[in-house]
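Take a specimen:
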Amino acid sequence: MEKNSKADRARQFMPFSPLRGFEELIRAELKDESPKRELSEYDAQRLSQKMQAVEKGCLVRVTYYEGDGYVTTEGIVSDFDIPMRRLRVVKKEILLDDIWDIERIH
């Protein structure tokens, strides 16, 4: 009987996540599974202007192509390497050529 009570006591300290799987569901819904689109000259110029406002440490919302569709993510820019053509939002590395839209969030 003591074994069960120890197990019961241990169970109360286990992490509880009532929404387990919910984050994956949200990520799946945020993914627009469509072929990669080419930026028009106007869109490329608009995107370039938006990127000028981006710097390390700012909060951004980025829509980019990943695998088989577009994903939107938000986070702090931890690195912005123009010569290497990549942007790192928290720990996610995004190639500049894959970015469809970026918005600095104040």
Observations:
- The first strand starts at residue 59 and ends at 66.
